[in-house]
Prior knowledge:
The protein has helices at 15-22, 27-36, 83-86, 161-164, 171-188, 193-202, 210-219, 225-236, and strands spanning 6-10, 41-43, 45-49, 54-59, 63-70, 73-78, 120-124, 129-132, 137-142, 147-154. With 256 residues, the chain is an alpha+beta fold. The strands form two sheets. Strands 1, 2, 3, 5, 8 and 10 form a six-stranded antiparallel sheet that branches. Strands 4-9-6-7 form a four-stranded antiparallel sheet, with no helix packed on it.
Amino acid sequence: SKKFYYLQEGLDSHLELKNDFSEWNWMFILNLVKTFRWGLPERNLFLVGEKDATTPCHFDEQENFFCQVRGKKRVRLFPPSAFSCLSPFPYGHPCDRQAMVNPDDPNLERFPMYRRAKILESILEAGDVMYLPTLWWHHFHNVDHLAMSITFWCIPAARDLQKAMNKELSDAIVVSVRRNIEILIFEQSGSNRTNQFKEMNGLLKNPPTPIKQLVKMMLLHVMTEEKAEETIRELVEGRYTQDMAFYSNPYRADVI
């Protein structure tokens, strides 16, 4: 397949960029940070790519203002509820937080749930600023050669789980809960991939394994029995039920 050059560089990595960066009018971002009670911008990236270069579909765990500086870029957005449609790589994989589905050429035999994905699509032009909420999936494609963008990432406001327990959890919180379960099991397995997959698949078994009993007990504090079973199923099926060799290159059409 064709390869493309793509630059991703921190704005404080070069003195000439750092000097320009410090002279910007920051009040636009800082006023929004204050309004929504986010943390101050903690990371900023300068992104440059050739025409047709793409950024794999993924989600971030920060709030993001994505600023298009030069050229056009196509963006596809998926809400946090698209978790099961996009089949994220297992936690600990080098492509953690990326979708195993390629939105440009989805393998619907391997990932049939992608048919249900709700997609928002737009073209960003120079001067546009797009708000990317935390845990929203995004896939970028450079329409123009040397399209340039700058990101402003901020730590999200702390979630009040006590209030959340009194009503149905948002899709974003459910994604966070799933991710924390994966982290717990990954650490419990000693960061061993074979043990990780064994324990994750154990969540689907009945009678329940000790790890499933623990996970189920935690989930029942914040959701119904039916929702807990659905959360566990969507966490595992299609993600930890594949042959482990599949995860080296899930985009290959011949890996069926």
